[in-house]
Specification:
31% of the residues lie in helices and 17% in strands. It has seven helices and nine strands, in the order βαβααββαβααββββα.
Length: 266
Amino acid sequence: RQWFSIQLPGKADPDLSAAQDDTLQILKSTRHKRKLQRGAHAANGFTLRLTQLDADTDALNQRLEIIARQGIPNYFGTQRFGYQGGNLGEARDYAARKALPEQRAVRSRLLSTARSYLFNRVLAARVADGSWEKAQVGDLLAFTDSRSFFPAGVDECSDPRLAILDLHPTGPQWGEGHSPADGATAELENAIANDESALRDWLVRAGMEHERRILRLPIGRLTWHYPESDILQLEFVLPPGCFATVLVRELIDLVPVGQTDSPCVF
């Protein structure tokens, strides 16, 4: 379930019935004096069906139970990077030329792609060393539904809100200035930024602000069942800006969906 806003000033309400089919149901339409701003909604609810399932359902259930308790790495999904990773290739081209796209929509898309790629590289490194779901001294911590963050000292690393998935370590969304993290966290983030210095410098020249994104994604109200022996239906809620496809990828060993050359780094 997701709200969409369509700008129709001074125009009659459109007939939306023709937009419905077996894959799309319009639950409600209403007028509002303002458009829906990006990220302004509280959450997104999903119902996904994985069909032609060929898996050990006991193992699949165990994996889903772990995900419900522990969350998953909060990667940006493959769709952020475009068809076969084309967005990142475009971003690298502009970065190499130290130029920006003239069209605002293209500029926004490619800058977001570059930031997402750098974030995913940091998260992949944290997953590899097992620290993605644990706070370490030098981290910057944030709550699930907040864009603000604060530094983690020894006391903050044992905050009980970490264990109940309310509080999380964060990774960088690169922009002006160095990583405000400290210690091993800063070393890792700066090493990856230095390795991708063309993209980093491009983001800085574009005037992007350094922001943070939680490394761990809690899966809200996760339930599942099997309508048929070869169909798994998942229902869950995610915060704004998080990707349902990433949850599916966490089941990839059990539900293969094919390989991709997309540079999402997970």
